[in-house]
């Protein structure tokens, strides 16, 4: 049984036509998308802006309405779950957005940011247990030195991403979704973050879903790659198959525009 299984997923946006008489026009954001994520697998979903990546990511967290299809986590359809039941799953499915969307509260210190998930998912921990988990999450993500009392605006972009990753990991997830995580980072910082995630995956036996526009990142990180174009999966394969033997014209365009493989 896969850890996560998405089957025949459709997401439709309804919008009003202002120029003619009022009427609704349905725009398909996601069209019959299906894929599985296995335990300890890194799967990359590659697509350019407006390919449908964000609606799909939000749908996996039940933050975007779904028209039809199913999303099963460990054999249970999360779309049909009661909210109370789904909240228990949220600890095991965590997402990290790039710095601009990471929602690090600017008025909270690093310690406060990392303690918040513990209050939600592990409310019965003692103070010393919380402190131990925070220290471990910081060590795991390379947040060395006296950073625990700093505020987000006192950290550099790489450190802020590490805090966001630590905050997700502290909930002890089994699946970590990384949505365009390396956006806007300098190449050395980007490489350090990607290598960190590879090490963390190996250490914690995590499954990773990389949602990215960058085929080079998918090639470097993934066991399997999906190409998303205009809301549909147009190609699926190993990184080697996608990069060296692309079949779809859109995939060939992505390969041609990627300078570092």
Structure, described:
This protein is α/β, with parallel strands linked by helices and 261 residues long. It has helices at residues 53-60, 83-90, 110-121, 127-140, 157-169, 187-204, 215-221, 239-244, 249-257; strands at residues 4-16, 24-37, 42-46, 68-73, 76-77, 93-96, 175-179, 207-212, 224-229, 232-237. Strand 4 and strand 5 (76-77) form a beta hairpin. Helix 3 packs across helix 4, helix 3 runs parallel beside helix 5 and helix 4 (127-140) packs across helix 5. It is globular, with a radius of gyration of 19 Å.
Name the features.
2 domains, 36% helix, Rossmann fold, globular, four-stranded antiparallel β-sheet, 10 strands, 26% strand, alpha/beta
Short note summarizing the structure:
This protein has about 260 residues and is of the alpha/beta class. It folds into 2 domains: about 5-90 and about 175-255, P-loop containing nucleotide triphosphate hydrolases (Rossmann fold, 3-Layer(aba) Sandwich), CATH 3.40.50.300; about 105-170, no CATH class. It has helices at about 55-60, 85-90, 110-120, 125-140, 155-170, 185-205, 215-220, 240-245, 250-255, and strands at about 5-15, 25-35, 40-45, 70-75, 75, 95, 175-180, 205-210, 225-230, 230-235.
pLDDT under 50 segments (min length 5)? none
Shape, please?
Answer: globular
Strand order of the largest sheet: 6-7-8-3-9-10
Percent strand equals 25-35%
| H and E order | EEEHEEHEHHHEHEHEEHH
> What is the CATH topology descriptor of the largest domain?
Rossmann fold
N-C termini distance: 32 Å
Fourth-tier CATH superfamily name of the largest domain: P-loop containing nucleotide triphosphate hydrolases
Q: How would a crystallographer describe the biggest sheet? A: 6 strands, mixed
Mean pLDDT: 91
Number of strands: 10
By CATH reckoning, the class of the largest domain would read Alpha Beta
SS-based structural class?
A: alpha/beta
Continuous helix count: 9
């Amino acid at each position: 049984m896969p850890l996560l299984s998405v089957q025949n997923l459709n997401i439709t946006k309804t919008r009003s036509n202002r120029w003619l008489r009022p009427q609704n026009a349905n725009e398909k954001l996601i069209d019959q998308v299906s894929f599985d994520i296995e335990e300890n697998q890194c799967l990359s979903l590659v697509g350019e802006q407006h390919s449908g990546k964000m609606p799909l990511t939000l749908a996996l967290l039940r933050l975007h309405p779904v028209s039809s299809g199913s999303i099963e986590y460990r054999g249970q359809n999360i779309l049909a779950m009661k909210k109370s039941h789904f909240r228990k799953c949220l600890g095991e499915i965590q997402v990290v957005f790039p710095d601009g969307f990471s929602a690090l509260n600017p008025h909270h210190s690093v310690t406060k940011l990392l303690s918040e998930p513990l209050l939600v998912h592990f409310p019965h921990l003692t103070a010393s247990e919380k402190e131990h988990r925070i220290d471990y999450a910081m060590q795991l993500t390379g947040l060395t030195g006296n950073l625990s009392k700093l505020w987000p605006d006192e950290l550099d972009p790489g450190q802020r991403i590490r805090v966001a990753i630590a905050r997700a990991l502290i909930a002890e997830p089994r699946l970590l979704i990384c949505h365009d995580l390396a956006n806007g980072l300098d190449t050395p910082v980007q490489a350090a973050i990607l290598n960190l995630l590879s090490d963390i995956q190996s250490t914690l036996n995590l499954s990773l879903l990389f949602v990215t526009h960058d085929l080079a990142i998918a090639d470097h990180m993934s066991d399997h790659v999906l190409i998303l174009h205009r809301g549909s999966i147009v190609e699926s394969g190993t990184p080697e198959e996608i990069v060296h033997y692309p079949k779809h014209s859109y995939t060939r365009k992505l390969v041609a525009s990627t300078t570092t493989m």
